[in-house]
Amino acid sequence: MDQALWEKCVSFHGHSCPGLATGVRAALIALDFFMDDITDEDSPGISCRSSTSKCPSDGIRCVLNIDDGRGLTTEEKPGELVFDFSKDGKHIILTSRPGGKGLSMEENIIRILMGKAEDIFDIKTRY
Ligand SMILES: [Zn+2]
């Protein structure tokens, strides 16, 4: 995990929290997935449909340089956190897995940022 990027996202969001970490990690997994199709790293051109407009979406805004009406669509859906990232008709859909019970907030943030991607999210792709 890129510490400078995390700090940039914390200052963008205003605080450090597991929700922000979830959005940052999801966006990083999407960046990795679309890596071969990205020509401009500052503006990777990845769109996201997010099931929340709250903390996780700020992580996505910060990492992917998108915002509401400019690549990001948020819908307030209770329950599971689902992020559907797409570029050129290709999708990677990440659903947050439950976890972090018994961990402190700091430990949970580290788990979300550094854990195995498949442990943090249920991952599906669509072409
Ligand atoms: Zn937050």
Structure write-up:
The protein has 127 residues and is of the alpha/beta class. It has five helices and six strands. It has helices spanning 3-13, 18-33, 55-64, 105-114, 117-120; strands spanning 47-50, 67-68, 71-74, 82-87, 90-96, 121-126. It has a six-stranded mixed sheet with strand order 2-3-1-4-5-6. Helix 1 crosses helix 3 and helix 2 runs parallel beside helix 4. The longest helix is centred in the N-terminal third of the chain and has 16 residues, at 18-33. It starts with a helix and ends with a strand. The chain binds zinc ion. The site of zinc ion has 6 residues, from helix 2.
List keywords for this structure.
127 residues, alpha/beta, 6-stranded mixed β-sheet, 6 strands, binds zinc ion
CATH-level-2 architecture: 2-Layer Sandwich
Average pLDDT confidence is: 96
Most strands sheet:
6 strands, mixed
Termini separation comes to 28 Å
Question: Helix and strand layout, with pairings?
Answer:
Elements: H1 3-13, H2 18-33, E1 47-50, H3 55-64, E2 67-68, E3 71-74, E4 82-87, E5 90-96, H4 105-114, H5 117-120, E6 121-126
Parallel strand pairs: 1-3, 2-3
Antiparallel strand pairs: 1-4, 4-5, 5-6
The structure holds zinc ion.
Zinc ion (ZN) binds next to helix 2.
Offer a concise description of the structure:
The chain has helices at residues 3-13, 18-33, 55-64, 105-114, 117-120, and strands at 47-50, 67-68, 71-74, 82-87, 90-96, 121-126. The chain is α/β, with parallel strands linked by helices and 127 residues long.
